[in-house]
């Protein structure tokens, strides 16, 4: 899942999103966390706290196979945060937003 998430994260950056990929935040720590006694639920709580600040959520193709992804999706929908399942769907939504200039500042090279 980490590799798939990274691929989609890069594509979302290319479209113009400032994408947060939770897999890259804690994916490498998960083995160490088990040794240290940090539970999966601790990572999940952090993830949901971050999600509350998001403008939108993108689901990976295999999201149904992940307890965390299912929870993220439900949580986002409960907060009326748009949830996307395809890159074109996400791109179309992004380019309709009023804050496009903020997105452009992130994705366009300085010059």
Care to describe what's here?
- 60% of the residues lie in helices and 4% in strands.
- By secondary structure, the chain is mainly alpha-helical.
- Strands 1-2 form a two-stranded parallel ribbon.
- Residues 105-111 have low confidence and may be disordered.
Fold topology:
Blueprint: H1 2-15, H2 22-26, H3 30-36, H4 40-51, E1 57-58, H5 67-78, E2 83-84, H6 87-95, H7 100-107
Parallel strand pairs: 1-2
Helix pairs in contact: 1-6, 4-5
DSSP strand tally: 2
Strand order of the largest sheet: 1-2
User: What oligomerization state is this entry in?
Assistant: single chain
Q: Please, what is the average pLDDT?
A: 81
Report the portion of residues in β strands: under 5%
Summarize this structure as a short list of keywords or feature phrases:
disordered C terminus; 111 residues; two-stranded parallel ribbon
Brief account:
This protein has 111 residues and is mainly α. It is built from 7 helices and 2 strands; from the N terminus they run ααααβαβαα. A two-stranded parallel sheet has the order 1-2.
């Amino acid at each position: 899942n980490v590799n798939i998430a990274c691929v989609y994260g890069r594509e979302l950056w290319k479209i113009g999103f400032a994408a947060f990929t939770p897999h890259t935040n804690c994916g490498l720590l998960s083995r160490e966390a088990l040794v240290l006694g940090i539970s999966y639920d601790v990572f999940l709580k952090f993830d949901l706290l971050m999600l509350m600040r998001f403008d939108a959520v993108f689901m990976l193709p295999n999201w149904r196979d992940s307890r965390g992804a299912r929870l993220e999706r439900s949580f986002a929908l409960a907060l009326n945060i748009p949830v996307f399942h395809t890159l074109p769907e996400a791109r179309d939504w992004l380019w309709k937003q009023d804050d496009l200039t903020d997105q452009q500042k992130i994705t366009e090279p300085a010059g």
